[in-house]
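Z., the sequence and structure:
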Amino acid sequence: CEDFPGQRSRHRFLAYDARGEWLLTCGFDGTARLWRASDGKPGRVLARGGPTCHGVAFSAGGLAAVGFEDGLVRIFDADSGQERAHFREGGPLNAMNFSPDGKVLG
């Protein structure tokens, strides 16, 4: 994936939201950021600094999940940027995705 202006490290993961309006990226520096899909302009930063990001996912209902190498998973409301939940897995995540109904993150 090409670099976006303002991104400080290489992207590791990328996800599109169900409406096709936003891209969610995360990188080696632990930054998770939204970008407007139409023109690549930066949107809100959901997470900054911390462990390397190991996965991102969008739910059909507008939630954005970000997973990190230490097993931490943070779930945000993509529109407001507010963190809705967080939990820790037993180890690093390699990938994740929401179920079609948005109720399960696996």
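The CA atoms of residues 47 and 99 lie 23 Å apart. The chain is about 0% helix and 45% strand.

Let me know what you think.
H.
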